[in-house]
Amino acid sequence: MYKKNPVQFKLTSTAMVKYVLGIDASKKDIHVCLSVIDLRQQVKVKATSKFSNSTQGFKGLVSWLNRYTKESDVPLVSVIEATGVYYESCALFLYNAGFDVAVVLPNKAKKYLQALGLRSKNDKIDATGLARMGAEQCLELWQPMDEFFFTLRALTRHHQSLQELRTNVNNQLHAEEHSIYSIKSVIKQHKKLIATIEEQLKEIEQRIHDHLNNNAEVAEKINHITAIKGLGYMTVATILAETNGFLLFKSISQLTSYAGYDVIEDQSGSHKGKTKISKKGNKRIRRALHMPALNMIRYEVGSFKPFFERILKRHNQKMKAYVAVQKKLLGIIYTLWKKNEAFISDVQNHLSGNVETVPSFANAKLTENYFLKNLLLMTVPCTRLGVCLLAKLIRESVSKNEPEAALDRLHTFLTKFFKELCDSHGVEFRKDETVNALYGKYIKVIKGKGFLESSMAEKIVQFTFQIMDAFNDIRNNKSFAHDNPRIKLR
Hints:
- There is one protein chain.
- This protein is 57% helix and 10% strand.
- By secondary structure, the protein is an alpha/beta fold.
- Among the domains are: 7-136, Nucleotidyltransferase, domain 5; 249-345, no CATH class; 368-477, no CATH class.
- It is globular.
């Protein structure tokens, strides 16, 4: 049996894996600690120092790093704690200089240092702990916020501050007016202050509106989203500002977790605590969505009210149902923004005239309306409008006890959708080519592009096509799509 040379193993095991720079930022200074981790997972401190929190100090930091990081093939990651706004200049300077930067939340850093058993706390200890944290963990790299949305965030947060200030002054005015001894001069100043704040609110709202309209693409997407009745312009602006235009979000689940709508459980053994949202996210998003969620129910927008009533019936708590509506509304805003589509509350309003009732299969009569509906499905693109139309027509067929017609329409839509997929991936096909014939071509192309990362994914796609084969039998032998023994044409 082959055994490694102990000397060789000792040499290779001490090879450095990565450098980590821990940075604790304050208003005037930044305390830094450079550590290194080797293949044995041992973390060693190479050097510590302190620099001014200024451009000159950042340049000195880079020179200091170059002196202690001689091995150019060993990666370097900078880990900085998000201390107010004092970390931003340093993080941006290092990012622009080509360094990998990771920003960690203060509570996460605090819990990590507590887990290490550190009892004392100062800037040097914090910087050392951040360096160790970056060495032992693979932290997500930070990217600076887009300047457009950074400006928008500053405007929307200032707007929120003015609103809160107006509420405070109004409360003070109310208390002063109803006290046993009212002082007229104080009441007069309160009213003047409220008038000034309201004037500033109008000004900042106009600036937000102008800022968003300066970008034609953003303005178009916002117009699509605000088509939802009860969802205001300022609400959408706040959500975009707090999420950087959804730039780094790849899924709705990531977004809901960032906003604090993710559900957490409290259960261990026989103990069963409450299941609730974490609230460990951006509270400004939840604040902005509170009133729009109430409006969704008040105006009965889309399917929000049945959804609200279902949650209310299950939990018997109105606020929990409203929070569920907030979460759903946030997901819809995200989807409309990513797809650049307008919200459609009722697909019937987007059709020319009312959709006629599908003819009964019992009568076995081939009418013009049936073909018009299938033709409409073929002409409507496979977007949200097409899915809404498909769902409406299927519901009509099921309510009339016509399952074959529902399957026929679903097959028509899926076939069109699949051919659109083939076209988007460059799969060549003839118009009269069957879905079965296209299956092999499609699998070969998406495999070549690396979209199928496992055999399980391929089996899922294959199972989907087996279902469509079953649809073929319904469509060709038991529906109005083709002439067959069950149908007699007039």
